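Q: Could you write out the predicted structure for this multi-component system? I'm mainly interested in how the pieces pack against one another.
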Amino acid sequence: MAAEPQSYISGSDRNIMPIPIARPAIGEEEIRAVTEVLRSGRLAQGEKVEQFEGGFSAYLGVKFAMAVSSGTAALQIGLQSMGVRKGDEVIVPPFTFAATANAVIHCGAMPVFADIDPRTFNIDPGKIQENITDKTSAVVCVHLYGQPCEMGALENVCRSANVDLVEDAAQAVGAEYKGRKIGTFGKVSAFSFYATKNLTTGEGGMITTAHGDLAEKVRMIRNQGQSEQYKHEIISYNFRMTDMQAALGVEQLKRIEDLNKKRAENAKFLTDALSSVDGMEVPFVPGHVKHVFHQYTIKVPKGRDKLLEYLNKHGVGARVYYPEPVYMQPPYVKMGFRKGLCPATEEACKQVLSLPVHPMLTQGELETVAKAVRDGMMGIG
Ligand SMILES: Cc1ncc(COP(=O)(O)O)c(C=O)c1O
């Protein structure tokens, strides 16, 4: 019997949520490719991982791509390969999934939180300089919801402060800034292929870089610190991807442009349907970026939680990404971080609401989402 598809909605909500926030786009080609690997008997990292890495670097137009077990591992290994370590500070935005800051801590370094631009939800390049100290080794920018950061301004501020720029591109495969692919700007960049991502391998990640020495270090760190078999240069981890995951990735990569195009079309439908609704704002997208709509996120300055409840009650799997700044999570509060540190982030946490935009939505489902938002907003106003 086929397994029930995961809807990525927690607990009892699953039975009343016919329109989930995410649904992986898995077709017969993906099933065939994974089955072939299973039949081959060669399951761990091998030919398929190499093929996926080659395809991914060609797609981005970057010299090196190394597959790993998750996006979190990709961030950690990327930072470690650059030499980020105990005593260093790394500037990150607090409006992100906790993994961005956690990866810095996994390297022994300390995250320093710089606030966001409330229009794009991405790190504000104007807030970086004031957070730079003589311990700062890198800035990690996060292309949140699939919307590219202001790369020109970020490159300028990092260059003048002589710190490295790293991209957390977990949510942004295929996105572009001024016609250039995200994941080609950072000294290293990290992607996630978690099951809800635009391109998925179930779990998985990729590190991209233009630097051969860093690529070599990444390969060593992901594989027990080995420079060759049973020659361990450093104490390290097993962060390898399997060939089963890579086979899925190879097939998904063939479809990523189409899948992202469908997301953009769905986003346009929602924006056309919702831009005139009072009391909410549709996503702001500057003309020089290609947003890949990992999430379609509206802002509801008053009554966001009421709208969320209404939508969930009416079968629309709307979600809040993210309800708290990372620095308000318990381990960070224990480290001494306090409310009030980044006001734009704290406001965004109270206002954002993500609506289903994934490529598996039908036209009828999209219309249901738009109507439910309009009806729900009438109840608030
Ligand atoms: C912005 C961001 N960074 C990092 C990660 C970590 O990726 P993973 O879940 O594959 O470890 C995610 C994934 O959810 C993410 O959204």
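A: Regarding packing and overall arrangement: The CA atoms of residues 199 and 320 lie 21 Å apart.
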